[in-house]
Write the structure tokens for this entry.
Amino acid sequence: MSNDVADRVKKIVVEHLGVEEAKVVESASFIDDLGADSLDTVELVMAFEEEFGCEIPDDAAEKIVTVQNAVDFISENV
Amino acid sequence: MFDLSGKTALVTGASGGIGSAIAKALHDQGAVVGLSGTRVEALEKVAAELGGDRVHVLPANLSDADAPADLVKRADEAMGQLDILVNNAGLTRDNLAMRLKDEDWDTVLAVNLTASFRLSKACLRGMMKRRWGRIIGITSVVGTTGNAGQTNYAASKAGLIGMSKSLAQEVASRGITVNCVAPGFIATAMTDVLSDDIKENLLSSIPCAKLGSPEDIAASVAYLSSNEAAYVTGQTLHVNGGMAMI
Ligand SMILES: NC(=O)c1ccc[n+]([C@@H]2O[C@H](COP(=O)([O-])OP(=O)(O)OC[C@H]3O[C@@H](n4cnc5c(N)ncnc54)[C@H](OP(=O)(O)O)[C@@H]3O)[C@@H](O)[C@H]2O)c1
């Protein structure tokens, strides 16, 4: 399950930020490592919400700064 | 030019003089329009004048904190999506500052400014996804010049301009523009209440020597809504017969 979540999260990040798949490792920070700006992070959260059919509240969304953060939140809440 | 076929627009204050003209202009350009206001009968009347199936009546009282999010949701449901938001609903509670009640300050700020922000926020998600959006605030010349007796109103209109400029910077890269239109004195219910003395005085300060019409404002909104205006954002278009050249 968690692998599957990780793969889907990575796919969204690759598509949305237009970065190489190899760079999208668990520890990668959207802003510091993958070149996202703050609006990109808002859009990523929107894309996660749609992909996983869940709602990510603002205070939780603010804590999702790395790929791993996103995988953890989704695995725990979906 | 300014073809809006296939676009959807929500106009607040569509029961009023300027709002109904804006709704008509956008409708004439081919848009599907959602008409909002508190007076259902007046909205129905505007809808009947527009006719056809490209019009929806969406009543809301924007002094309620939850109304903006709910209104955008209903507009989405009725029209499928929301491409153009016109924050036009507005009211005045004029008085000299020394006599102005807290309540009159709060009411004016709540409807003119806070509701406009909440409506804008609520429609951003869809606009960002589609990489296209237009948010237009109807501010006022007094938001820039100030006006004795209108501390609350002028603050709300100046606030709308500052909010629009900031939001414009946040979302420009996503194909969303945020602009304001600032009417001078336009012949509607809002200015009907002015005394003849005041009106006469006003006219002497307007180079065009007449009040503007709601259609003058509506044409500017149609332009800012269009694809042709894609490179215009964070601006305030003053439509005031030259009474203030800013
Ligand atoms: N007329 C002018 O000279 C002039 C000049 C500068 C700026 N403006 C601005 O232009 C805009 C339109 O004004 P107008 O001249 O057309 O005035 P209007 O005829 O009095 O219309 C005002 C509109 O705002 C709506 N509204 C007021 N309070 C509301 C509330 N709590 N919830 C929802 N809707 C509410 C009204 O809806 P209901 O009646 O259905 O409640 C009405 O449709 C306003 O923002 C005004 O500040 C006008």
Notes: The interface with chain B takes residues 39, 42-43, 46 of chain A (CB under 8 Å).
